[in-house]
Amino acid sequence: MSDLDMDLLRAFVRVAETGSFTKAGQVTGASQSAVSLKIKKLEERLGDMLLSRSPRSVRLTSFGARFLNDARSLIDLHDRVASRAGGMEVRRQLLLGISDHAAGASLPGIVAALGKSLPEYRLHVSVGLSDLLYRDFRAGLFSAVMIRSEDVGIDGRTAFEDDVVWTASRDFHWQAGDTFPLVSLQDGCALRRFAIQGLKTAGIDFEHVFTGTGVGAVQAAVSAGLGIACLDRRNIPPGSRDVGSLYALPDLPKTRMVLFCREDDIASAVVQAFREHL
Questions:
Q1: Neighbours of 13 (CB within 10 A)
Q2: pLDDT digit string, tens, across residues 85-113
Q3: 168: which strand partners?
Q4: Which of 88, 126, 207, 218 holds its CA 20 to 30 A away from the CA of 167?
């Protein structure tokens, strides 16, 4: 096998992180065709396909997923050695995925705390849905993810638990017997599943009046008085309240936020940052 060129490795990592040749080119300052050529050269040197290409998407192959961490390690080692030779020190990269539910309004404080407790790392944070973050963590795209255990059905390191409550604006009123106006995230969200299961078990007819792609959208819909949502207690928006007892709604289970982390030395710092800012 020929020597591995750092420029080719960087192009591969950028495509894996962005899921796009065009976006990777924008990050690296190269054209889409130039990035594609670099990936082709790297695949030829490795003797296997790194990426599965289609008109709509670019995904890692099983070999590409295994090689991604090695590529990052090689780049990190190269940059640190080059910097030390030049009299400088380069901080390591920490790619952290955080569930939209886990962070909430505390995200700025959590990120600031991590920056202080892990000064040797360059922090890159992505906020999204738990199941997608966990999928990308398994593919090697994140160093660590803080997600809801119930969304992926797998236990990680428990960071904290929270009550799940029926939430509505203080100005909103629902009459028992009327169709229940459900505000929720899209399919795949554990809280949406809890709400639907609870309503069905209690024999309460419901309709989806709002389906959002993030917690902020659900909070906005609740604040606007569109309906009732199932939310973590810490994510109840200002001007809203827990209406479970008021409307005799079914009980909801507690939920757990868990950490999956590739590096033990940062796991404690991440968990501590969350616990301090909840």
A1: 22
A2: 766 666 678 889 999 888 777 888 898 99
A3: 241
A4: 126
Identify the sign of the CA torsion 110, 116, 118, 120.
positive
Question: What's this model's pTM, rounded to 2 decimal places?
Answer: 0.70
Which amino acid is it at 164?
V
CA distances, 135 to each of 92, 148, 152, 170 (Å)? 23, 13, 9, 38
CATH architecture of the domain 91-161+255-278 equals 3-Layer(aba) Sandwich (3.40)
In this predicted structure, what is the pLDDT of residue 264?
Answer: 78
pLDDT reading at 224 higher than 90: yes
Q: Which fold has domain 164-253?
A: D-Maltodextrin-Binding Protein; domain 2 (3.40.190)
Give the pLDDT score at 51.
Answer: 92
Tell me the CATH class for 1-89: mainly alpha
* Topology alike, domains 91-161+255-278 and 164-253: yes
Work out the number of other CB atoms within 10 angstroms of the CB of residue 189.
25
CB 229 within 8 A of CB 182: yes
Q: How far is CA 44 from CA 11, 39, 40, in A?
A: 14, 9, 6
Structure tokens belonging to residue 195: 């709400």
Please answer whether residues 78 and 20 qualify as being in contact, where contact means their C-beta atoms are separated by less than 8 angstroms: no
> Between β-strands 164-169 and 144-148, what pairing exists: parallel, antiparallel or unpaired?
unpaired
pLDDT digits (tens, 9 = 90+) for 100-157: 888 777 888 898 999 899 988 888 888 888 988 998 888 778 889 999 999 888 889 9
Is the pLDDT assigned to residue 1 strictly greater than 60? no
> In the chain, where are the structural domains located?
1-89, 91-161+255-278, 164-253
